[in-house]
Design a protein that fits this description.
By secondary structure, the protein is α/β, with parallel strands linked by helices. Helix content is 48%, strand content 15%. Helix 3 (48-69) crosses helix 4 and helix 13 runs parallel beside helix 15 (385-405).
Length: 631
Amino acid sequence: MKNYLLNVIKSRVVSPFWILVIDLGIVANAFLVAFILWLSFQDSAYSVWGLIGTGTWVLFVYLLTYLGIGSYRGVIRHSNYNEFKMLIIACFIAFAVLVFVDLVVIYYELPWSRIPLMLLVFHFLLTTILSFVFRMIVKETYAYLTKKKANINTLIYGAGDMGQITLEAIRNDKDNRFNVVGFVDDNPSKWNLNLHSITVQSWEKAIKIWKVMGVKVIILAINNISVNRKKEITKDCLDNGWKLKVMPTVGNWVNGISNRNQIRDIRIEDILGRKEIQLNLKRISSGLERKIVLVTGAAGSIGSEIVRQLLRFPIKKILLVDIAESALYDLQQELLLSYYDVPFEIILADYTNAFRMRQVFESYRPHIVYNAAAFKHVPLMEANPYEAIRVNIGGSKVIADISVEFGVEKFVMVSTDKAVNPTNVMGASKRICEIYIQSLSNKRNVRTSFITTRFGNVLGSNGSVVPLFKKQISQGGPVTVTHPEITRFFMTIPEASQLVLEAGFMGKGGEVFVFDMGEPVKIIDLATEMIQLAGLKLGEDIDIKYSGLRPGEKLYEELLASKENKLSTHHEKIMIAEVRMYEYEEVNRIIKQLLSSLNIEDNFSLVARMKDLVPEFVSNNSGFSVLDKTN
């Protein structure tokens, strides 16, 4: 019987034509009932032929209205608010037409049998109610027949708008398995209230009650919540064996739609982040207005997020430059689906190729350049100094020199904390980039404002430790940590990208801006938390294995060199590093020699040249350490 009903509701038997027929049947039967009700209030008689003629006229008007409005065309088993609204509008228009014709008949004393107003009112109310009830019966029957039994007892943390949106998304999903048994909120004024027949409780009370009542999932659905509070909730969930999930804020919904599939597992980024950054939107917007912006490394983790942030502002055009074809294509498709108003241009190009980049600058004449392109993996660059020099140093020099040549207004260099007292080739290459960029600011007659931004590790970026740990955990481990004492500074991708935009419009040029990275995080703690968030027990379900420091790797990262001081700015998270000043002519000469030596010298000779330019570059756990002993 259940399958038969389901097939009937889903089949073309319940087509728009039959919905129209049923609606007209409701109109006819509602008229008969309304007539009987009206007649009970009357003393006079009414002929059968008058009833048939009047009923036919009413049916005809409703038919024309339904055809005009199209209230019968929706998929009835999926009827929603808009379709119910169309139904009410159609019924009201038909009612209004009948009343209007009746008034015309009375006013002009036409030889036409008029319909009593009370009868029309009764009929309108009955038709609207019965049509609505018919659709609701079909909708609820279909929902009952297709809905899977929700057997995962769930609490929604947040009794505000987001919490109620989450509940609605869950209830509207026929494949949903979440059985929402309660709301939780930190606001005492909401405690013991009922929302959609569900009680709101405090977190402490919910833990006591539902710990023994079989709750399995907590869904965090709240807009404004501190990171510390998220950590506390996460710890409580882990202690109670509950799975913690997150409903993203409205701005992060996929395609702007709320549904159960948006609910995701909590990520390590959610509890390692910090409070939301407050940007000086007016300053940034003013600086970017009607500008053509070029981003190198646009398909990378930082570059692509810089692109997304830039698209929020009134720029004229954005140029996306990258050599990674597949990643660039993926970014292009993402932007096309996001319906951004700002036009963008995809440019597949190697930014180390001076001829190709000059073509790009000649064609588009960018006003602002964000240089986010670089090779960044420490062990790979330690094994391949040639590429670190060619791409990181050579590419940055090419793009910076061409920016000066074409009078670019602002050039923002994305650097790293590994450039501070570098212990590896990658960090040293980025420090040389910093030196060259800064020296250009000291060159006479240079109109371009050069800015350098320096920050630490970015959570979730390509090749970072978080995706690696996720993969290892999904494969059952072990999770590999290089050293029990190793620590790193962490920042989320959006946070880093937003601060790059902010720093780009601070200062006059030549500054090295250092971002406040917060407290360093022990990698062993990070690994442990990620294992717990995955619902696993360390030592039972999965192990941590120490693999030893990799070539060039530090135990502790630094944001400032030992001889550098920092100056505060108007933004609490951005400081200016007081770095050593370099003369352009000398730096340019040394870097030219370094680049010209690429094809004639071996790795040791190339790294030795890097150490000459960056005396604080002392290799760690690397074959290049022998060069330090001879210096």
